[in-house]
Amino acid sequence: MASIVATLPPPLLAPRKSFTILNISQKLSVFSTANGRSGNVVVKAVGGSSESSTSLDIVKSVRNVWDQPEDRLALFGLGFAAVATAWTATNVVTAIDKLPLLPGVLEFIGALVSWWFVYRYLLFKPNREELLQIINKSILDVFGQ
């Protein structure tokens, strides 16, 4: 659960009183102002749980793998492979960028493909609907539904 602590300007604070926004079991002190007046202000986030987010799911799955001793070596191997792949990709892109003519040609090809994609899928409404169908089908294929 997230909480936000705020300091209100002195005219808004009543001396020696606590202000609580929402239903809170615990109050946090706000630092006293130059006048010596202080107050408690706590804002509590209310809403959907953030446990359904993808990043928390990834952390939970890594923790589950880490708890099994026979899978730790595989986890280290995947981490090393990810670092090695990123390093290799960076070096390949740097090497290609140093070639005299190739970066300009690849940029031109990228612009042509982008223009074709806009013309093919985004310009007209029936084509946009087709693109949405393709995306939805791909999502269903990935998640196996």
Can you tell me about this structure?
Pfam families: CAAD. This is Cyanobacterial aminoacyl-tRNA synthetase CAAD domain-containing protein. It is a multi-pass membrane protein. Keywords: Membrane, Transmembrane, Transmembrane helix. With 145 residues, this protein is mainly α. It folds into 3 domains: 47 residues, no CATH class; 45 residues; 47 residues. The protein has 4 helices and 2 strands, in the order E-E-H-H-H-H. The two termini are 32 Å apart.
Overall number of structural domains: 3
Strand order in the largest sheet: 1-2
Task: Count helical runs.
Answer: 4
Low-confidence stretches: 11-32
Large-scale geometry? flat
Query: How much beta, percentage-wise?
Result: under 5%
H and E order: EEHHHH
Taking all Cα atoms into account, the compactness measure Rg is: 27 Å
Helical/strand content category: mainly alpha
- Give the % helix: 55-70%
Biggest beta sheet attributes: 2 strands, antiparallel
Strand segment count: 2
Distance between the termini: 32 Å
Q: Oligomer, anyone?
A: single chain
Determine the mean pLDDT.
74
InterPro entries: CAAD_dom, CURT1
Keywords: Membrane, Transmembrane, Transmembrane helix
Domain Cyanobacterial aminoacyl-tRNA synthetase CAAD: 61-144
Protein name: Cyanobacterial aminoacyl-tRNA synthetase CAAD domain-containing protein
Could you give a short description of this structure?
This is Cyanobacterial aminoacyl-tRNA synthetase CAAD domain-containing protein. By secondary structure, this protein is mainly α. The chain folds into 3 domains: 47 residues, no CATH class; 45 residues; 47 residues.
